[in-house]
UniProtKB/TrEMBL annotation, chain A:
Start and end residues of each ABC transmembrane type-1 domain: 11-190
Protein family membership: Belongs to the binding-protein-dependent transport system permease family.
Record GO biological process: glycine betaine transport; transmembrane transport
Organism: Methanococcoides vulcani
Family annotation (PROSITE patterns): ABC_TM1
Keyword ATP-binding carried by entry: no
Taxonomic lineage from the root: Archaea, Methanobacteriati, Methanobacteriota, Stenosarchaea group, Methanomicrobia
Protein name: Osmoprotectant transport system permease protein
UniProtKB/TrEMBL annotation, chain B:
Function: Part of the ABC transporter complex WtpABC involved in molybdate/tungstate import. Responsible for energy coupling to the transport system.
Keywords noted in UniProt: Amino-acid biosynthesis, ATP-binding, Methionine biosynthesis, Molybdenum, Nucleotide-binding, Repeat, Transport
GO CC annotation, single: plasma membrane
PANTHER family: OSMOPROTECTANT IMPORT ATP-BINDING PROTEIN OSMV
Native species: Methanococcoides vulcani
Protein name: Molybdate/tungstate import ATP-binding protein WtpC
Places the protein is found: Cell membrane
TrEMBL record, chain C:
TM annotation in the entry: 23-45, 144-172, 178-198
The protein's name in its UniProt record: Osmoprotectant transport system permease protein
UniProt record similarity statement: Belongs to the binding-protein-dependent transport system permease family.
Annotated ABC transmembrane type-1 domain residues: 19-198
Membrane topology classification: Multi-pass membrane protein
InterPro entries from the UniProt entry: ABC_transp_perm/SBD (IPR051204), MetI-like (IPR000515), MetI-like_sf (IPR035906)
Species: Methanococcoides vulcani
GO biological process: glycine betaine transport; transmembrane transport
Location in or out of the cell: Cell membrane; Membrane
CDD domains on file: TM_PBP2
Main location: membrane
Keyword vocabulary terms for this entry: Membrane, Transmembrane, Transmembrane helix, Transport
Highest taxon of source: Archaea
Amino acid sequence: MVTIETILGHTGEHLVLLLTTLFVSICISLPLAFASLYSKRVGYVIMKFANLAQAVPSFAVVAIVVPLIGIGFYPALIAILLRALLPIIKNTYIGLSTVNASMLDYADGIGLNKWQILRYIRLPNAYPAIFAGIKFASILINSIAILTAYIGSGGLGELIFDGLVGFNNEKILAGAIPAILIALTLDVIFTAMEKKLVPDYRK
Amino acid sequence: MPSKRIFDRIDSIQLRGVTKKYEGRFAINDLTLDIEGGEMLILIGPSGSGKTTTLRMINRLIEPDSGTIHINGQDIIELEQVSLRRNIGYVIQNIGLFPHMTIAENIGLVAKLEGWDKEKISERVKYLLDFVSLPSEMFMNRYPHQLSGGQQQRVGLARALVMDPPLLLMDEPFGALDPILRKQLQEEFCIIREKLGKTIIFVTHDIEEAFKLADRIGIMDDAKLVQIGTAEELIFHPANDMVASIVDTGKKFKHLDTLRIRDLMTPLDNKYVHAASLAVDEAIDSMLAKDIELAVVSNGNEPVGIVRLPDLMRLGETSDTIGDHAVSVPSFASDELLEPSLKDLHEKGHSIAFVTDNGRISGFLFPNDVFRQLV
Amino acid sequence: MLLSDLMNVWEANSLTTRTIEHLTMFSIAIVIASIIGVSLGIYLYSRPGIAHPVLNFLNVVETIPDIPLLVLLLPIFGLGEEPTIVASILYSLLPITRNTYTGLKEVDQQYVDIAHAMGLSQRDILFRVRIPLSLPMIAGGLRIALVFTMGVVTLGGLIAAGGLGAALIAGIQLYEVGTILVAGIWTGLLAVILDGFAGSIEKKLQRRYGTW
């Protein structure tokens, strides 16, 4: 018998992990993307690494973290970060760097400095890509946060894994259904935010 | 599955009251037009005048809202689209060679769909490539992106001819080429056309081109056919001011005896000049990159002759320089009188001459091209 | 770590067998997903009215986290390879179908136009012009699918499907650092190699079938 309190408790743990990781990954990714904009070499390395890391299965990343950092909430957070940072950096970088060359020329021409170009031209141009990156990362984080229960992060994954071990379908569903609902909610929220924040001319 | 041969020759094409509207605007307004079998009709007019729409209605890429089109007395709406189109060749400005097929596959595609056997297709492809002056053994297995624009346009023509259609529709086929190459291809096309003996409807916005190539010229404006007739008829009896102004720009022959070479020469771009010491294969690469088929070979500042791209390609592996293969051509000063120079060239059978200014080459004179403009 | 240690870990966990299991599930899933995805993409292209609802539905499937999807398939397929393969296929359908559909739809209009003018039938245009010119795009979709499938197949270890995921689980449960590192790095390496291989094929197709 799974009580509502159990479900809520695990959902809470799951959300804390999810939101913390999402927040940290945004805080780290955006400056890195801006930095790579002004150094071709950094940009190149980051893009290469991003493409490479995206190919590595999440389970392999989560497992390798265990002997290096241990188990629990923070190792889980770091494992998820390793997978979630790169889509945001990559998308932001692409958004910032694919600006119409004639627009940059014009900006130079009217005497905007680097910072102003970033603020008024590159950033607005990159909004849709940045949003797409964050949305993708949040859904990825939600799914890896279930897996990290295997290395002691708690959350909804714990219910699922307990259920698997004990052939307890009720427990499995108690973990799986909220996780799916969270994914769908994230999708809806980010899609709505995207519509609201991305200016009309971009649509 | 082979489609049936709908017509072996064109006796007549009749458009009657053809109208097409797009979003309330007339693309073609009540067009009536008769095309005779075997003629080359050129439609000319400003963009949006309806000339391309007219062309695309004949192979049913566009269906009219009202009116009829008959070929040899047969309403084309009753014909099956696919077989109608396989009986009509179509050549367009941006060529549209399929990038994933070799030149041979591009040309032979429809023949293959018609179920021809491999040998027959390959024979036909070779014949057509040679016909458009591309050495077949060299081009068959290349991909379109490995060809210059002029070469692609020749392949486009060869592809349109594969089923030996009695009717050719050409939509500004030379429009994207540079002036010298355009003149070369127009010249070649004049010769090809006589060999082909096909009915051709050709769209252009270049009145000189129309004068040079057309049997009759149809002038279109604002979705209507304004006037149709031979060059002389349009020049001497223009239907209105618009026709007169279009025709006027092509008229350069008012006082033949006072014309000088510079009036009718084709100015030369620096990209045509190549040093005599250049190796043949480097020259080929350079000409492909610059999309030219003719180069001036120069020794220092002095022009020693010309080389043509197909001739160079035919040489195969060689360590020669282009100086070894330069063909010398006559040279005239730009301020010389045109008439005696033309006579001279004509008698000696030259099809090209240098024009020089103070000893430096400044352009080409294509006597055949000039003759056609003067006729 | 010495080479002999590495060999010991490799053999103790029968990583050769695990790799074969892993790649077998992977290949089956990719082949089936490609067949269904490409056919579905072509079908949607011929029925544009239902393209959007179908792609939206696949989008929702894509949003479902992987482990819940796997466990939801358990009552239908039981434990093991089958639900793992089915989940991989479900994830792979979206990128393959969407790229096939978009690729077919966005072929440069000039080629379609000239093909019509040459008298190619709709069917010929589809098979001789649209599909070949969409191959780079389809390959791009397949490459994404390949990455998804590698991820899901590795998770299959959690529901007794074997493969390299099983080795990772054994390593974590018994806390054998050697096993975790060797199996983890090998799993990552295998995925990166396959992705790199797919990437080079994609580039080749772009050169061969791309437009200039």
